[in-house]
Amino acid sequence: MRRLLTSRDSWRAAIAIGIAVILTHFAAPQFPYWITMTTIILMQSNIGASIAKSYHRVLGTIFGLLAGLMLAMLFPHQVLLAYIAFPVLLLLFIYTLVFSYGLSMFFMTALLALLFTYIFPDPWHFMFWRIIDTLLGAAIAILASLLLFPTWARRDFSDSLIDGIKATQQLLQNLIEELLYKEKVSDFIPKVIDIEALLLKRRQYYANLRYEPGALNLDQGAVHAVLIAQERMHSLLLSLRIATRRPIKITAELQIGIERFITVNARLVDDLALAIDRKKAVPDFTESYAALCRLKEIAIQQEDDNVMVLLYRNLSGYNAELKHITQAILQLRRDS
């Protein structure tokens, strides 16, 4: 599937760039690379990302041009201004590129506008074609994303959510195996880093899907609930890791109870993944709650064991966050 998506991305980009090159030949003979470069930069992996990046680039370009030309008009032919403004604007462009594409484009375009006032006698001509070429490149990128093998950010968000839930469940099982059978989780840190990377990627997908057509009908509260629940599950796993490192008396009854809970939860996560993918109804938590109630009884019997109480609270919290995700997915399915 990933290879197929990569192939689609390649074809989409190739066709879009071809259209940009042809359009450049007829529409922008003075600055032949602007439309093509804009199209290449704004072609992203999904529709939401392409629209979001195009939006920020267009706004950054327009306001950056205005700012650069205003500086040039306020301080005409000031060489000192150039020596001060050029490195400052370049530094701001590099600094903001990490966290704000639109802001970085503002500083870069302001720098170009200021520079071109020293090169061209009519800077308004440069300003006009810079805006037109940026709009044309953005239009090509957005239309190509919408019409040529479209990939939706909401689809990427769902896939990332499924991957995150399964990865979290697998890490939970590894921690329980370490607790019950003393099988050390040697790759715990890499797995935690992978889950954190999925969380960051999911937040980016959410930021992108808000720009897609139909995003206004999306229940933003439900999506936020999913994101928060996933992050809390991740935190609970880290807390559970601390609990499993402490000595605890593993009775036969406790082992059976934990194994039962993990088995039921693994099946629950598989059903939840299918529900997110719209291949199955949202799962029922009856079995999971029953297994959790049994663990609670054991925790009450061993209330003097602080580790057992901590273990139960973490597993209970983990199960509650799964329930929150299920409720949010149900709400999203009703709204769509």
Any overview of this molecule?
Helix 1 packs antiparallel against helix 6. The protein has helices at residues 2-27, 34-42, 47-74, 79-96, 101-119, 123-147, 153-181, 188-209, 220-244, 252-276, 286-301, 306-335. The chain folds into two domains: 7-147, no CATH class; 153-335, Four Helix Bundle (Hemerythrin (Met), subunit A). The longest helix is centred in the C-terminal third of the chain and has 30 residues, at 306-335. With 336 residues, it is mainly alpha-helical. It is built from twelve helices and no strands.
Mean pLDDT: 82
Task: Please state the structural category.
Answer: mainly alpha
Distance between the termini: 25 Å
Name of the top-level CATH class of the largest domain? Mainly Alpha
Biggest sheet features:
none
Note the beta-strand portion. under 5%
What's the number of domains? Answer: 2
What Rg is obtained from the alpha carbons, in whole angstroms? Answer: 27 Å
Range of helix content: over 70%
What is CATH's topology name of the largest domain? Four Helix Bundle (Hemerythrin (Met), subunit A)
What are the segments in which pLDDT stays under 50 over at least 5 consecutive residues?
none
Quantity of strands, as a count: 0
H-E order: HHHHHHHHHHHH
User: What is the 3D shape?
Assistant: elongated
Helix segment tally: 12
Level-2 CATH architecture of the largest domain: Up-down Bundle
What's the structural blueprint in terms of helices and strands?
Elements: H1 2-27, H2 34-42, H3 47-74, H4 79-96, H5 101-119, H6 123-147, H7 153-181, H8 188-209, H9 220-244, H10 252-276, H11 286-301, H12 306-335
